[in-house]
Amino acid sequence: MISLLFLVFLAPKSSAYIGLYNDLNCTMFNGTSVVYAPEAVNCQNVVSDSYCRVAYPPTSPDIPYPEEGMDYERPLMCYTLDTATPAAIYRDAQATAVATCPRTCGLCCRTSAFMCKNLIYPRIDCNTITRAQCQSPVWRQILAEDCPARCGFCDLNGCIDAVPGCENDPSICHTIGMEQFVNQNCRRTCNRCSVSTQPPCAAGK
Ligand SMILES: *[C@@H]1O[C@H](CO)[C@@H](O)[C@H](O)[C@H]1NC(C)=O
Ligand SMILES: *[C@@H]1O[C@H](CO)[C@@H](O)[C@H](O)[C@H]1NC(C)=O
User: Fold this and answer.
1) Which residue is closest in CA terms to ligand 1's atom 11?
2) Where in the chain are the domains?
3) pTM for the model
4) Pocket test for ligand 2, best of 29, 32, 34 (most atoms within 8 A of CB)
């Protein structure tokens, strides 16, 4: 009982640590600590990763960048334009971080790709879906339809390529002998999604 009480007291402390400014966006409770949810890091930076490493260096050199299931502090510059500590928080700085380096700042869930609702009655429990499943050809179509906000598929309206990378060479859509492959795997890139499919994000927008 006493140790349980201790945990309750400790929880707010660790959550203050994660965002530095108590930013609980893109986090979850893992049973003992507040940690980054998959949605925190399940996107690409908008600008190059190398730019983001320069613009948003770790607050101290020994702190890794945000990772799923971890409680590393976000880079200070995701929240401020000041280098002095304690630094003032600027809303513009956060908005800029989301618009440029959401992955580096662990703020993917604030981008438009995550701004919709999962189905109310999904075929699978969206909260258990991992980043690996979001990339898996076996899962992607179901996840685009049922759990778009978990995987960052909100901009796709349920129409997704089963395998990443089709868009790198759209000419495959018209390559003789590839029809069956693209119908199965490159439905978005090759415009093969049935128009009658109900977009899962419509209700959330
Ligand atoms: C998420 O970020 C927004 C914008 O900075 C902020 O207003 C809000 O309080 C944050 N939400 C949580 C749960 O920390
Ligand atoms: C929760 O996350 C913290 C920080 O990463 C870790 O130390 C702890 O072992 C995790 N707890 C569980 C139950 O996974």
Assistant:
1) 25
2) 20-114, 116-158, 161-195
3) 0.76
4) 32
